[in-house]
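Hey team,

Filing this mostly as a record. A colleague (T.K.) asked me to run one chain through the structure pipeline before their review meeting, and I want the input and output archived in the tracker in case anyone asks later how it was produced. No errors, nothing strange. Just documentation.

Input sequence:
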Amino acid sequence: MSSSSNIIGPSHLVIATLNPDDMGRYLAKAGYQGNHYAPGLKNPQAKAPFIQGELSLLCDMVLFTSNNGLPPIELLSEPQATFAGTDQATAFEPLSIPDDMEGPIEIRVRCQNPAKAASFWRAAGGGKEKPENEAARLSFDRNIAAPAMDLVYVRSEEHPSTTWLNTPGLSAVSFLCRDASSLRDDLDSRGYECGEVFKIAPFGKKLSVFFARNLSREIYEFLSLDR
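Output structure:
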C-alpha cells in the first residue's frame, strides 16, 4: 500500500509526566476527563530507541478526552529512575490549551529548517502543506478519533537536538494510519529513523504501532487498528 493514501489523520497527543496526578488535575480543569486507564502496561522493547535511559518494564497510561473540540491526550508515566531531566525541552513548544476553540488546534515544532522538517509529511503522505514566512504549516482534517490539527514548524536556533518519549511535556503526536507496517517500511526506505512495529491493546482495541523520528528530531507515533 502506498503511503500516499495511508495517513487517516490525528489520533492524540502524548504528554509524558513525572507527576500524573498533578497533570491529571490540570487537564480536568481544562475540560478533560480521564476515562480510559491502563496501569502497569508492559513496555514493548520497540520503544527503547525513543526512551532516554533504560526502558522500564512497565508504564502507566491514561487517555483523556474532551467535549470541547480538543484532541485526546495520552498521559504517559515511565517510572524508571533515568527519566529525562525536567530541565530538558522537547522539540514541541509547550502545549497551550485554549479556553475556546476557534479552528484547528496548533502544535508548534521548533526546528532549524521548517521546510526540511515539513518534508517528513511528503514522505508519510499526510497533511496539506501551507508555506508561511519563516515557518511551514501542515493541516490535517478531523476524523473519527480527533479534531482538525495544524502542525506548525517554526525556525528556532534553540530547539533540542533530540526529543524522547520520557521528556516531560508534549513528547509525541500520534496519527491514525491504515497500515502501520507499510507506512513504517515507506518511511524507513526514505531514511527516517523508525522503530519496529509492535502490537498493543491498552484500552481494549488491538493496535499495530510504531514510532518515527523526524530529521528535526521530534517523535511521531503511528497506529492502525488490527482487524
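Quick notes for T.K.: The helical segments are 20-29, 114-118, 120-124, 180-189. The mean pLDDT is 88.
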